[in-house]
Design a protein that fits this description.
The complex is a heterotetramer of chains A (104), B (144), C (150) and D (265).
Chain A (H helix, E strand, L loop, with lengths): L4 E8 L2 E8 L22 E8 L2 E8 L8 E7 L6 E8 L4 E7 L2
Antiparallel strand pairs in A: 1-2, 2-5, 3-4, 3-6, 6-7
Chain B lengths: L9 H14 L36 H21 L7 H13 L3 H28 L13
Helix pairs in contact in B: 2-3, 2-4, 3-4
Chain C lengths: L1 H19 L11 H5 L3 H9 L5 E2 L3 E4 L3 E2 L5 E7 L4 E8 L6 E6 L4 E9 L5 E9 L3 E10 L7
Parallel strand pairs in C: 1-9, 3-9
Antiparallel strand pairs in C: 2-4, 4-7, 5-6, 5-8, 8-9
Classes of the chains: A mainly beta (104), B mainly alpha (144), C alpha+beta (150), D mainly alpha (265).
């Protein structure tokens, strides 16, 4: 698939409402593979960072206790229509993905 | 091809009693299998005594093999009636594995359990052949 | 060891890029110690220097009373407290209680929503650090063993 | 007197009685709400569900399905050439009785028939791609009213419907439950910690993202799970048994809104 991120950024009365969804297994490292009996290694997003026009607006630090295919939403003030909101995640294996959208 | 003699042996009675006690689920039953619903390779007669309950006549290996063939036959009949239970085949596989290890006692017990499941599933299918109709939701006004 | 090697192989480029970018693009390193703590108290101490929090009714912690599914428990937190610096979600009975922690720069509202995993019935705590102190709100979420589901 | 009369009533009479049962059982729940499954009945769970629907995890599957749907088949045709009105969706018209094969055709078997007609092998039922295509078509079809026909002048169609009905009311497995035992007789009751949903509206929202599994599953995978739950051996996905069951069950939900894909615990 092209992206592992879904991002919506909407202005409501001066407040920008950000919602995001990541495609990620968020493996805890304590599950065993039913087929092989081996422990499935920890594999989870560690950080999710949002910027607006390059300015950091949120840093979310995740443990393995965040659900599979994580959802995260927050709000910020001072955004204008047309601003570029970017979400970027990195996981414990160093894999990463990012997505930009315009604030509407 | 498994041919099983039709007889009113004590094995049937014991077994029937066993599953009446254990299942407690099926209230009405007839000890006649709806064998006409399928054309399996095996075709046991209406009643098939469980010879695994009459120990001592055969070697354990022969007893296991006969019992296994019968149980597998009954399982196929249950499957043919669309009524096979979840673990019957698993029990048979496990019994084979135990037999392969020479654990005849365990193997035969597992076969008996599988056979019980298959027989009960067949009873269930037989009963359900008509019973389901009484559960169909009907309009409230029951006109005569 | 294996993990480290994989990380270097796969993430080598990413790490290189990270190292060269200003802090505004990628924040500080993921605080591993906080997330590997096995008690809530230890986790809070390593995050905030203390596990003493002041219960506050100005924190609105929204969690279900009975979780439909322990694998996906919706949590949302907002507060009328001012100068909020961070918000954390702590699940006391999870093997590693610190579920997530959010850094709130000025301009960002103290209002977050996410979904978390819970192994068993537990108190869930919202811990909020402001320039004035550390505040919390706690609510119990019951996690049950399902029947057939959905 | 109890008679077998009900078993032989026509499909329309069956459906009226089915709907009337739930109306009597849950007088406060409007008909349209049944499209929301258990969340029509369970208020606490409903809030959690609504939270998840704000940004539902099945969105990735819809995207995947959208891409797959647009792909060209070997002879240059696309799925849209096989279905009428793919812009407004076709999910609500399935399953249907397909006279050429003399069997019930579901959206999934229709997708594979389309592939085969245009020079491509069929997809695995329950596989990621088939589920994604199905989820995408459910998404496109949202808002349409379920309208499955069981033609009264086609005895084969009636027979398939009756087979599905028989399946629904037949007890099976070690636990000796029928679909109807849980989802009609005991709808709204608890099975351990879960509340049983109503049979009315069951097929409206599939495929469904199961939080428990962390993935999107098809209706037949759910059937399979239910059969397993009563400790009976499940039938194959898209087997004749399950297609007939889907035919009966979806006909019972005629008039409800098609609102898939959905999210469930």
């Amino acid at each position: 698939m092209t992206t592992t991120i879904k991002l919506s950024a909407k202005l409501k009365g001066g407040v920008a409402d950000i919602k995001s969804l990541m495609l990620h297994p968020m493996e805890t490292g304590s599950r065993t593979d039913p087929d092989t009996g081996n422990i499935i290694p920890t594999h989870h997003i560690t950080q999710l960072v949002f910027t607006n026009n390059g300015k950091e607006i949120m840093v979310a630090n995740f443990s393995t206790a965040v659900s599979k295919n994580p959802f995260f939403g927050f709000s910020f003030e001072g955004g204008k229509a047309g601003d570029t909101v970017k979400a970027r995640w990195v996981d414990n294996n160093g894999e990463t993905d990012e997505l930009e959208t315009q604030l509407v | 091809m498994v041919r099983v003699p039709a007889s009113e042996g004590t094995g049937v009675k014991t077994n029937t009693f066993g599953f009446l006690c254990l299942s407690g689920l099926i209230i009405v039953f007839q000890p006649v299998f709806a064998a006409n619903t399928m054309e399996a390779e095996c075709s046991p007669a209406q009643e098939m005594p469980d010879r695994s309950l009459e120990r001592g006549h055969e070697s354990e290996k022969d007893l296991f093999e006969h019992s296994y063939a019968e149980a597998e036959c009954l399982r196929k009949m249950a499957a043919g009636a669309g009524a096979e239970w979840l673990k019957t085949e698993v029990l048979l596989k496990r019994s084979s594995a135990e037999a392969g290890e020479g654990s005849w006692d365990i193997a035969i017990k597992l076969v008996q359990k599988a056979r019980f499941e298959a027989e009960t599933a067949l009873q269930q299918a037989d009963f359900e052949a008509t019973a389901w109709k009484h559960r169909v939701i009907q309009a409230k006004e029951t006109k005569k | 060891m294996n993990n480290t090697r994989r990380m270097i192989l796969k993430g080598g480029l990413a790490l290189l890029v990270l190292a060269s970018l200003p802090r505004t693009i990628m924040a500080a390193v993921w605080p591993k110690k906080i997330f590997s703590s096995t008690t809530a108290s230890e986790a809070l101490k390593s995050l905030l220097g203390t596990d003493a929090t002041t219960p506050s009714d100005r924190i609105n912690l929204k969690v279900p009373e009975i979780a439909e599914n322990g694998a996906v428990v919706p949590v949302s937190i907002d507060t009328s407290l001012e100068n909020v610096e961070s918000i954390s979600i702590v699940v006391k009975n999870n093997p590693r209680p610190m579920a997530a922690t959010f850094e709130i720069p000025p301009g960002t509202l103290p209002k977050i929503a996410s979904r978390i995993k819970m192994g068993e019935t537990s108190d869930v705590m919202a811990v909020i650090k402001t320039s004035n102190g550390i505040y919390s709100a706690t609510s119990e979420v019951k996690v049950t063993i399902g029947g057939c589901g959905g | 007197m109890t008679t077998n009369q009900g078993a032989f009533a026509g499909p329309s009479e069956d459906r009226e009685a089915f709907v009337a049962f739930f109306k009597a059982r849950f007088p406060d729940i409007p008909f349209t709400e049944y499209a929301n499954g258990i969340y029509a009945i369970d208020k606490d769970a409903r809030e959690q569900w609504q939270d998840i629907e704000i940004f539902p995890p099945y969105e990735f599957t819809i995207d995947q399905g959208r891409v797959l749907w647009a792909e060209k088949l070997p002879d240059g045709k696309t799925y849209s050439d096989c279905f009428n009105n793919t812009t407004t969706g076709v999910r609500h018209l399935y399953p249907r009785f397909y006279t050429d094969s003399g069997e019930v055709e579901t959206l999934e078997t229709a997708i594979n028939r389309c592939r085969e007609t245009h020079g491509q092998t069929g997809l695995k039922y329950g596989g990621e791609k088939m589920v994604a295509l199905s989820a995408y078509m459910s998404f496109v079809s949202r808002g349409n009213t379920i309208n499955v026909t069981v033609s009264g002048d086609n005895p084969e169609a009636i027979a398939a419907y009756e087979e599905g009905k028989r399946f629904y009311y037949t007890k099976r497995g070690q636990l000796n439950f029928s679909c109807s035992d849980c989802h009609i007789t005991s709808a709204g009751q608890y099975v351990r910690a879960d509340r049983l949903s109503a049979g009315l509206g069951h097929p409206t929202h599939f495929p469904v993202y199961r939080s428990k599994l962390g993935e999107v599953i098809s209706l037949h995978q759910r059937f399979s799970g239910c059969v397993r739950d009563v400790r009976a051996k499940p039938f194959a996905l898209q087997s004749k048994e399950f297609r007939n069951l889907e035919y009966f069950l979806t006909f019972m939900s005629n008039g409800l809104e098609a609102n898939g894909p959905g999210a469930r615990k």
